Every structure is written in C-alpha cells, then in structure tokens.
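Before the break, one more example. Copy the sequence into your notebook; we will annotate it together after we see the structure.
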Amino acid sequence: MTLSRHDAAQVAALLRHPDGERAGRLRLWEAWDEGAGGSPALEFVEESHGIARNWDGMHVLLTGCVNHTDEDHEVPCGPVPARDVVLGGLPLMSKGQDDLEDSALRLGNARLLLPAEVRAAERFLRSFAARDTDIAARIRERAALIEAADVYSFRMLVGSPDGRATRMSMIEDGSLAESLRVVRDFYARAAAAGNAVVKEIS
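Here is what the structure looks like once it is written out:
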C-alpha cells in the first residue's frame, strides 16, 4: 500500500470537471498516475510505502472488524474515520473501468481523502495510539482477532543475521507496529498541512 499527500487546491481543481464527477475522478487519477493520458502531473508533497503488506492487518487493528472477503466493492467495514485510514475514501476512476463499482474494488485502485477526512483520520489515530507504548498495547488487545481474521500476508519468512529464515507474523516481527507508527505520523503531517491524501493497495 502506498500513501501520498497533495495540495488540496490542486486536487479540488482537478475534480471540478465540466463533464461532471466521473470525468473529474478520471482526470484526478490520471494526474496522480504521473500525468497519464496527457493530464498535468499532480504534485506529490510526500509519498510513503511504509505499510507494505500490513494494510489488511492494520485495518482490522484500527476498526476491530474483518473486511468483506467476497464483495470487495462494498463499503469497508468499521466506523468512520477508523475505516478511512486504510480502506475508506472516494474511489478514483481509471481508464478501462466501465462504472463506479469497478473503481470501488479495493485492490489496484486509488482512493481519495479530502482535507476534512484527513483531519478526522488524524484525530482518530492520535486518540487510538498517540504514543509508541499505546501501539504495543492496542496490538496486544487485538492480536487474536488479527490472527483469526487470516489477514493478507499475516506470516512471512523473515531473515536472521545467521542467514536462516524464520516464518513470523506481522505482530511477532514488529512490522505491524512500525507500519502504524509510519501511518500515524504521515497523517499528522498531512493534517497539519491541510493536504488531501491518496491511497492505493496494489
């Protein structure tokens, strides 16, 4: 999963398309996708790849619920703004998608949070885990749920200094905690700057 933050005025201007909302979403997606389709490229204030494989586990951690497994175009589970941190937001259209339902698929599609939604997500993250010790406590509280949910890439081979590889969970290897730290701090910077945020799970 990638996160990027952008100037809110530039995002708003791209969304205001004379041909309507669908055209605005497509133009914003093309601009975000490094100027695809001849659109001017959207300026990236910051881009983060810090969540990596942990997006699904983080959504369960933050919302306390398991994602839909069969209908991934449905509204993500969990209350706003908790669900907005990872999976919520306005789906952007890309070329080749026939309708808004296609653009709402979770994987391979970009989603937009406007500044007010970014600020709400930041406030939630601050209340959820303001300190690193809070992160550890929250993960302990929901460790069983995250494991039972069979989230994406829960266990992976992790190399050790002696060259051996051990199969560890995202909780055991500390990567889930580190991802939450990265995301919390990213949203804090975005909210302070009044940025819009675009997210993509690929």
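The longest helix spans residues 175-193. The chain is about 40% helix and 15% strand. Try to locate both features in your own notes.
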